[in-house]
Design goal:
Layout (H helix, E strand, L loop, with lengths): L5 H4 L7 H28 L2 H22 L5 H32 L5 H23 L4 H32 L3 H37 L5
Bound molecules: zinc ion.
Length: 214
């Protein structure tokens, strides 16, 4: 699910070199886990792992936007947010497609792989939480990091429960249900991001259309 926005993550501390280094580290962790969960999800035949990868993608995008785009003008920021929302939407549809595919073939995901990768994902999110907590900047910022991490941990635990359910029932249903829920949440998040980004883009257009008074 979509986490803290880039602005709330890196509002005023964004310029500090130490905070930028932490942003680079959490960007690498989230980017790496996105790739790892996509590949593991395909190898294990688990749609839930691929759905969990979506959140790592969203978070990696936020940290990348904080690092590269936040200082740029409103139009660039709106454009970056739009690309992120559109990518999340496409990934969400792809996960739903994977669910339909696995249901049609009645495939059963490999539960041990789900358990191991789900645990690694949980640890990765906890490490990011600890790193970001050291840079909390006011109550609002702290709160957004908390909400963000709590949602990530809930998603990781859902994947672990799905692994347990697959193991216990010998069917793919726990995986399909968890993956569908996470994909729908991601699609809702993507729709909100696209709507906000479109509005920001339009207001940036209006601002740039105002003639400069000399
Ligand atoms: Zn997240």
């Amino acid at each position: 699910m979509p986490c803290c926005s880039a602005d709330s993550c890196a509002s005023s501390t964004g310029s500090s070199p130490r905070f930028r280094r932490v942003l680079w580290i959490v960007l690498a962790i989230n980017g790496g886990m996105f790739a790892a969960e996509i590949v593991a999800g395909m190898l294990a035949g688990s749609a839930a792992l691929q759905a969990d990868a979506l959140d790592f993608f969203a978070d990696a995008s936020n940290y990348a936007i904080s690092l590269f785009v936040l200082g740029m003008n409103l139009k660039w920021r709106a454009g970056a947010a739009w690309i992120k929302g559109a990518s999340m939407g496409l990934f969400g549809l792809w996960v739903l497609g994977a669910v339909v595919w696995h249901m049609a073939y009645g495939s059963v995901p490999h539960a041990p792989t789900m358990g191991v990768i789900g645990t690694v994902a949980l640890l990765a999110n906890l490490i990011c939480l600890i790193l970001l907590m050291a840079f909390r900047d006011g109550d609002a910022n702290m709160r957004s990091v908390w909400i963000c991490s709590r949602n990530d941990v809930i998603a990781n635990v859902a994947v672990l429960l799905a692994a347990l359910g697959v193991f216990g029932t010998g069917t793919g249903w726990p995986d399909f249900i968890v993956a569908s829920l996470m994909a729908v949440l991601a699609l809702q998040g993507a729709a909100t991001i696209l709507r906000d980004a479109t509005r920001e883009w339009r207001s940036a257009e209006r601002l740039s259309a105002v003639p400069v008074l000399r």
